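Worked example 3. Consider a protein that binds S-adenosylmethionine.
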Amino acid sequence: MERPTWAPQGIDLSVPSVSRIYDYYLGGSHNFEVDREAGRRAIEAFPGLPKIMQANRAFLRRAVRHAVGRGITQFLDIGSGIPTFGNVHEIAQEADPAARVVYVDHDPVAVAHSRAVLEGNERAAVVAADLRQPHDILASDGVGRLLDLDRPVALLLVAVLHFTADRDDPWAAVAQLRKALAPGSLLVLTHASTDTGPMKPEEGEEVQSVYRGTASPLHMRPRADVARFFDGFELLEPGLVPMPEWRPDLPDGAAGGPGAGELRDDPASFVGFAGVGRKP
Ligand SMILES: C[S@@+](CC[C@H](N)C(=O)[O-])C[C@H]1O[C@@H](n2cnc3c(N)ncnc32)[C@H](O)[C@@H]1O
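Given these inputs, the predicted complex is written out as structure tokens:
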């Protein structure tokens, strides 16, 4: 198979990647047939999957605007993915041109494409690192150069924690990240779950079985396990809720994309949890 210029040398093109499958759901062009095939199988198990992803992106944009509205202009976006439309740096820097954004991902395509998109943007950077190694992220060049951890930061863990297994103790990794943040910082999170929305547990199991064929299997979790990621933080209103329910009236800044109102009409977009917590 011909390797396109955006695909770094050395990546295994025979194994689907969660980052490229997500790009496929969102209608992007940074994916291979192996990713599209996995995406199609997952959509067969639950046809509303692309709507969930749109609701996730729309929540992410609203949460970023909310953070800037609270005066937070520093963003650490871990599991940031392959840039698509309405990216965090675009939303944040449109709301406040001084905003600084550090993207972190362990997927080579996500990192390479982010680097290309960010060229010439001195207030944004991408770090190749793993969420399960928070020390590497905090000690990275990008974080050291762009973020002042003595001031509030919005830590974004959006649609990423469900790609970590219980045995890797993602709660400990997130606790380490929370500890590094200044008071007033925000934790912005979404997580797959069959506890809310119309996805039946057996449909969830089928979707998860597709992801077992990737390097980052999917782990849907019950509400209580998701809530633990916010330990010690105060959940902002309206709490841990389905994505379209989180402050649907905020503009999400996505010209052409579905707004929260439109997404609220589709029950599929209610699968999974979204929340924003604040460090006291
Ligand atoms: C579904 S995408 C979400 C992208 C973006 N946060 C969003 O919500 O639109 C999940 C991303 O998390 C990344 N990811 C998964 N496990 C990771 C880990 N342990 N460390 C860093 N990134 C990870 C994947 O490579 C992928 O790009």
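Take a moment to read the result before moving on. Residues 48-201+218-278 form a domain with the Rossmann fold fold (CATH 3.40.50.150). The chain has one domain: 48-201+218-278.
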